[in-house]
Amino acid sequence: FIRHKQSFMSFLVSIRSMASKTQVGFIGLGNMGNPMAKNLMKHGYPVIASDVFPESCKELQELGAQILDSPADVADKADRIITMLPSSPNVIDVYTGPNGILKKVKKGSLLIDSSTIDPAVSKEMAVAAEKLGAVFMDAPVSGGVGAATSGKLTFMVGGLEEEFNAAKELLSCMGANVVYCGQVGTGQAAKICNNMLLAIGMIGTAETMNLGIRLGLDPKLLAKILNMSSGRCWSSDTYNPVPGVMEGVPSANNYQGGFGTTLMAKDLGLAQNTATNTKTPVPLGSLAHQIYRMMCARGYASKDFSSVFQFLREEEGQ
């Protein structure tokens, strides 16, 4: 009897794990979405995908993903959908547009948005989804393309706490850290706050390194001293903006790859909007926003955000 009971229990467990590997929808196969969807497939999830640019779908299709024409078509086939899109207007269109997810969403569907957008838009989408019996959660990421490829992203999740484990099951296939932040919009809030500090820290590191070099210090030596002193930060010890100080970072590769200046300017704009709405003083965040906006206008838009070092060097010469 015990043996029979054990085999029956293991049968139930295997049925449950098979059931949990039902197909997952994925919308937005750009620099981040593509490797994220691939990691879902590596973990055995059949993926049904869609992207506004058909050429973005080719690689995933060759790996066995089913490609559909619109977000609505994906929602018709899958009751768990992840979206990874560039900005708030894209998210609004993909969810509520004429061919949007909410046109054909099934009751009980779990909708996870990993885009970085205004928290107010996340809340709007959650309300719209709830009216149709679906659950919307915001789950923006930190870690960039490298972490997306290696499956080591950090997800900051906002939404109903009782749905967190269902979201975590999928997000853990793509990330090393999945953190519950609170109600819908708090994931976005955490991401925006992190990136504002990241920008301020990067500009400070670039200014400091530039001043030290002008004072005759060797950049590698200066970085070493900073990193054993109280000025140490992620931008100085992991992502140094000065060419030749570190290997394997964008500054070692003419600022190619990494996290683009345009995206940083966008995130700082979100921080600025939320600060204005909450009457929160962010003088350094505001200044960082203006610096990155100037960089976008001066030819740095597609370079990594650490190129602020190069931008400051050029400003000296004018």
Supply database-style keywords.
single chain, 318 residues, alpha/beta, 3-stranded mixed β-sheet, 15 helices, 3-hydroxyisobutyrate dehydrogenase activity, NAD binding, NAD, mitochondrion, branched-chain amino acid catabolism
What does this structure look like?
- By secondary structure, the protein is α/β, with parallel strands linked by helices.
- The protein has helices spanning 2-20, 33-42, 58-62, 71-77, 88-96, 101-104, 119-131, 144-150, 164-171, 186-214, 219-227, 234-237, 261-277, 283-297, 308-316, and strands spanning 24-27, 47-50, 66-67, 80-83, 110-113, 135-138, 141-142, 153-158, 175-182.
- Strands 3-2-1-4-5-6 form a 6-stranded parallel sheet, with helices on both faces. It has a 3-stranded mixed sheet with strand order 7-8-9.
Write the layout of secondary structure elements.
Blueprint: H1 2-20, E1 24-27, H2 33-42, E2 47-50, H3 58-62, E3 66-67, H4 71-77, E4 80-83, H5 88-96, H6 101-104, E5 110-113, H7 119-131, E6 135-138, E7 141-142, H8 144-150, E8 153-158, H9 164-171, E9 175-182, H10 186-214, H11 219-227, H12 234-237, H13 261-277, H14 283-297, H15 308-316
Parallel strand pairs: 1-2, 1-4, 2-3, 4-5, 5-6, 8-9
Antiparallel strand pairs: 7-8
Helix pairs in contact: 2-8, 10-13, 10-14, 10-15, 13-14
